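Entry:
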Amino acid sequence: EQLAGLFQRSRTPVREAIFRLESEGLTQRAARRGFVVGGITREQVLEVYAVRAVLDGLAARLAAQGILPGEIEELRWLNRRMHDADGQQDVTAMLNLNIEFHEAICRASRNSVVVRFMAQIHDWVRRFPETTLSYPSRASQAMEEHDELIDALARHDPKDAERIATSHMERALHVRVAMLQARRDVR
């Protein structure tokens, strides 16, 4: 009722929206509290990265086949902006630019299903408590990997682009696992 009043809607669409959020794992039922924002487990993080590695590799392979010069320049521009954000120690900007970078590759793939699935993956990634780019030396390593990927895309080399993109996500997974382990050790 509170949400319906807040958004000036009837209870039915609000209830449907909450049920949809629950089905997507974004909310959870809490005894005597209604719904709360859903947490994310270590297993879910690992699942997201498993899918993300394959999806990023596929997007890069498809993009390499027909990426346009303007799209290559957009990727270079995004990576330069990430360098600037890193210099200013603006981790939030780096996270957002990194997501933009990977979404730009997805758009260059010309595959609407890849774009839609990657948007879902990025929704999950935004729920993680911190970004791998905040891990020591990961930001500079990621930007170097982006440069390698951009070069493979510019050469229109699908195999190399896929290899680099998949490897990039696998390295991010290793960092994420180290971060999860460190959080567990702190508790």
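The mean pLDDT is 89.
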